[in-house]
Amino acid sequence: MATKPFSPKEVQKIIQFLHKPAVFLNMTDDWPGREWTLEHLALCLGEKSVCFRIGKQSEEKAPLFETECSYVKATLAEFLCWTRGSSDSSVGPFTAYPLSEYWAYADYKYLALLFQDNTTMFKGVVWSDFGYPGRDGRESTLWIGTNGANTPCHLDSYGCNLVFQIQGRKRWHLFPPEDAECLYPTRIPYEESSVFSQVSVIKPDLCRFPAFRRARTHVVTLQPGQVLFVPRHWWHYVESIDPVTVSVNSWIDMKVDDEARVEEALTKTIVCALKTTPSLDNKDNWLNPTEEGIPSHDENMQYLNLAVKACLDKRSSYAESRPEFAGQSSAAALKRDSTGHLKTTATDAAPFSVSFGPHLIPVMCVADESQKQTTANFKETSLSKDSAHVFSQNRAKPQATDTPGKEEGVRVSGGPAEDGRHGEKYSHISTNDVLDCLLHPDVITLITRLMLDRRRELDSK
Question: Would the CA dihedral through 32, 137, 108, 223 be positive or negative?
Fold first, then answer.
């Protein structure tokens, strides 16, 4: 068994106290999953088909959301032929999509479903090395893509994220939770547990999104064998930069997710209520393909009540173990740092200092002195096996046009109303504009805490 630079207990402590993204090196050398190349996986899955998301290679100044993509079902063998330009692909499911013009992405593929007939594959991913005993491929998802395949910039509502790169390289653009205002959050398209950014972080429209100039970009290229730690609520845009990429990730639940589940239940209730109401501007494709249908309002309210009850029950159990928090409001009782962990008190253990080195590389923020050009101008130093570096990415300084009126105001000027997205400007407020304000992460958190406090007060009478 290979010697690891960190023990599971050490990694667990690092993750608990690490507030920023970081890359772990030399932790996966003995994982069977290191052999999961596209060729290997194609043999393992045989004739089993998976769904691929297809996007056109472009430099548009708007994100390509999943609602705007095409989809095909294919075996990994057919996908492999397409990536190689084989003549067999001229009659397969990718016939209409020349490799030079399109990318393909098999994303969010749960290993528990893919390999339910070959459970030995679950042992290929050993998250127990990261301090999570018994956690393996059953709690992981597979991502297979071609050059240019990407996930729009978003944050995950729940937990933190561990990403194991297997084949090819992926470029990650990350932004801290505090930069939400610079990323123009939206819940349209709606996907449970995902808050999207309206900004194309690769080629941003700075006239429409001027506050993005102030976003603190962290960019890193993840190499095979390395594991990226993404802290809770860090925004991220991910793009494949090699002909074929394969990676596996696992979302790790956290205690603070109980309140986040209430926020998500409330968000779903509001989105479904407003977007299913017939109106002139409710004709857009607002539901992400990952969502399975639209629940009724009664179903959403039932789930919301269950989420509130579960959160308050756990809050009550925690208060019993921590008497100093008993009777406090939601905001006061659970003060947390940016990672979602409870802040320490005098009775807690002494804070742990994370030491970086050759086996743990921080993803650094762009230096202030380099912020003179837009995100298209950057200089890359890729991560290597024994050392790692981040992109040095340049941004423009705020200009005179970066005024509060343009930055925070409602979209204005003439033009027909479609769905409130992708460059259209108008003179009226749409349903999506209302949702962007009402479901802003900061607003939904305040509403959720008010609702929890009122429910707690009623239950205590």
Answer: negative
- 32 φ, ψ (degrees, to nearest 5): -55, -30
Q: How far apart are CA 336 and CA 314, in angstroms?
A: 16
83-119 burial string, b = 16+ CB within 10 Å, else e? beeeeebeebbbeebebeebbbbbbebebeebbeeee
CB 57 within 8 A of CB 98: no
DSSP state of 223: P
Contact in structure between 123 and 31 (CB atoms under 8 Å): no
- Please report the DSSP string for 47-80 in residue order: T-EEEEEEEE----SS---GGGSEEEEEEHHHHH
DSSP per-residue letters across 288-333? -TTS-S---HHHHHHHHHHHHHHHHHHHHHHHHH-GGGTT--HHHH
CB within 8 Å of 55: residues ≥ 6 apart:
64, 69, 70, 102, 103, 105, 148, 149, 150
Collapsing DSSP to helix, strand or coil, 3 comes out as: coil
Bridge-based pairing state of the strands 227-230 and 49-56: unpaired
Distance of CA 232 to the CA centre of its chain: 9
Count, residues in the chain: 461
CA-nearest of 241, 245, 285 to 105 is 245
Residue 88 tokens read as: 């067999």
Write the single-letter amino acid at 77. Answer: A
- Closest among 59, 43, 60, 54 to 93, alpha carbons compared: 54
Q: Which of 415, 410, 418 is nearest to 68 (CA)?
A: 418
Paired strand residues for 145: 105, 245
Six-digit token pair at 399?
């200009």
pTM of the model: 0.84
Which of 231-240, 254-263, 339-348 shows the lowest per-residue confidence on average (mean pLDDT)? 339-348
The helix (run of H) or strand (run of E) holding residue 173 is strand 170-175
Element (H, E) at 191: strand 185-191
CA–CA distance from 132 to each of 31, 77, 108 (Å)? Answer: 15, 33, 21
DSSP per-residue string spanning 97-130: S-TTTEEEEEEEEEHHHHTTT-GGGGGG--GGGG
- Supply the DSSP symbol for 452: H
Residue 195: per-residue pLDDT: 98
pLDDT at 370 over 60: no
- The identity of residue 393, as a single letter, is Q
